[in-house]
Predict the structure.
Amino acid sequence: MSAAARLLTLSAASSADLERDTDELCAWLTTLDDTAFAGLPVVPDTGPAGRPARRAVAASTPVDAARWLRRRDPRRVFTAGPDRPAGTVFLLSGVGDQYPGLGGQLHRSLPVLRRELDRCLDLLAAEEDLDLRPMLFTADPPGPGLDLTALFDRRGTAQPIHQTAAAQPLMFALQYALAQALIELSTPPVALAGYSLGEYVAACVAGVLPVEDALRVVARRARLIDELPRGAMLVVNAGDDAVRPRLRGGVSVAAVNGPDQCVLSGSAATVEELALDLTAAGWACQRLPTSHAFHSAMMSPLVQPLRTLLDAVPLSPPAIPIVSTVTGTRLRDEEATDPSYWARHLCETIRFADAVSELWRLPDPLMVELGPGQSLARLVQQHPGRPATARTPIVQTLPGQFESRTESEVLLAAAGQLWASGVDVDLPAMVAEPQGGAGWTAGHV
């Protein structure tokens, strides 16, 4: 987090009072220079926190804070009225968006996450001889801004962090640790949904299987995948119904992300040919940085070995509801406790669009994405079933590779958004900096 990044929080008895307090705060901010702003605590005292109408903004300068507050910019300023208690939904991503150094800053600054992540990394190192620390905690992580070489390297699979045997347990450990930190510092989610590997994370968070067993299954599953022939995956900006008649050579529809986006999976040569054909037909296509054809028939040789591995794992009904991306509906207890469900999971189409439809039926859900960037958030926001009254934007918890914000700045904004939405958040612990000192206080109660 930059030295001056601060989270300003406001609460009031009514929406009208909140608007008046916001204008007063804007006026006060105009009296500060950058040095004075940087001298404030990370969460300055801006008045009583228990009142129902809430607003929060994270900013690095008083000018930015005042401008965003004055405009009530919904991308930066998070507001909730007295009648909008929040129930969070955790969205857990798969692999593909990870990058060297991911999670390193939060590991240093957030003790709860450090405890859970260290636990996972120690177990993987001791039991699976898998040392992931150099990938997560690089001595010289990439700085913010665009790296054009990386941006245009669509395959990117030569990097160790994109190799399946490392990428899957790494992303499992990081998302599990982040989920546990959010639960400990705020409240448990009302539902979980995981994209591909993310559904294993969801299962572990929901108590379907213990973390020790989950790590072992994920690591050995990844090694089994690594022994299979290489493959490729292709995002196509078209519905699966339009694309299916053009499929050939054993290529599968790996995922249905929405009415106008699907993912294809198969051998590299056939996927490349299909990409040329589909592009010529007018559809935008993009190769994913993955080494294998996940969620395709190429994964079928692993069903039996995975079933054997999972037969030895105690499986329990989920304590938190999970929306399955295999069925697109709530995961039933008999499915969660069936090793066959998890064994065939790798071969089944990801029905993410159907799962999102199910999530949007929840009463006023606050979606929280627990992976780098906003790849799932974009799909959720663009979903045709999204209610007109849905909360926006979706809570982001980690920056994407090419974002200018640091991990701590993103989490600071996430903490403010959760708090403003009525979630009970331990803000001092979330921002991981001792609190104290003076701040602006509203002129009335």
